[in-house]
Each structure stands twice: as C-alpha cells, then as structure tokens.
Amino acid sequence: MIGVWSYTVILTYVGLASAVVGMSWSALFMAGEVSSLLVPICCLLFSGFCDMFDGRIARSKKNRTEHEKNFGIEIDSLCDDVCFGVQPAMIVFALSPNKYFGVVAATCLVLAGIVRLAHFNVVEMERRADPDNDDHSYRGLPITTSAIIIPFFYILYTVIGESFAAAFPIVAIITAILDITPFKLKKPGTAVVYIFTVLGITTTVALIILSKK
Question: Do residues 95 and 168 touch, judged by C-beta distance below 8 A?
C-alpha cells in the first residue's frame, strides 16, 4: 500500500476518522434525524486531542527517513484541514439561522485554514533546508484552535439558547481572518499542551452535563 503505515501516523488517522463521524452526525442534524450537535462537538475535541500528541509520537521514532518526515508533514496538514476546517465549518453551517451567511462563513473558515496550512508547509520546508534557521514560531492563528473556539461557543449556545446561534458564522469569519493574519505566535510547550488537554476534558464533561439538563 502506498503511504506510511506505522505508529507515527496512527493518531493522525484516528483524529481524521473522528472528524468523519462528527461531519456525518452534523449532516444527520441538518436532516432532522438527530436533535443535538453534542457528538460533532465531542468529535472535534477528540480530533484536537489527537493532534496535540501525534507530532510527539511521530518524533519518538528514531532515524525517521526524509520520506517519512515529509509524508508526516503533508498528511498532518491534509487531516488538519478536514478536522479543524471542514468539520467546524459544518457545525457552523448547521447552526447558522441564515444559511446564506452560514455557507459564506463556512467557506471562509475552510479556505483560510487551507491557505494557512499550505503556507506553514512551505515555511517548514524552508526552515528545515536552512540549518541556521531556528525559528519555530507560528504565523497566524493555528487552525487547530477551532477545536477550542467552537466548543467554547457551543457551551454558550447551550446555556443561552437558540438566539445565540447567530454568533457562530461571525465567530467563524473572525477565526478565518486570524488564521491568515501574519502575527507571530510561539509554539506551545509541554505544559501548555497539558493545560489544553485538561481544558478539553473539562469542556467535554461540561457539554455532557449541560446536554442532560
């Protein structure tokens, strides 16, 4: 089989599979088959969890070939755009009261995300080709922050009610703008990763509790 099939990419594939489940559930919500978007939100959070640790797992393998490294960069970006671009875009569209505005917002979110990821790939390849370049900071808002932003606003939506749904396309457009705004952001360290992990688990628990009220 073509591609790389090892433990270094398994978590990336698991995150992608979670996103497909979430998107399918969003489609069921729009078709009126289910009454809640709790499952897609939890899938988005789980995809975020996978993304936080897949790079660390990949780097744990000693003597990775250049082919494996390059494949890892490409597959990670492709999966990221599905997990944190298309998946949250479907949630935004599903919740948008005005579907015309919703499709514009969803399109902006996916397009900005894929442009940012392509830019990141190019910059990362240039950095690796230059031994004197030790700049590991991000440019723009990482697309993976959708896994924090959308669930947070979904909690507010759960608490406030249907009237808050109009905020989702606005949030998506603002997020899209931040994705391609060239500000510098330091890559998170281990402590920050653990903080976001705890935050994600707390958010999931909060959503489950709120959904039962």
Answer: yes
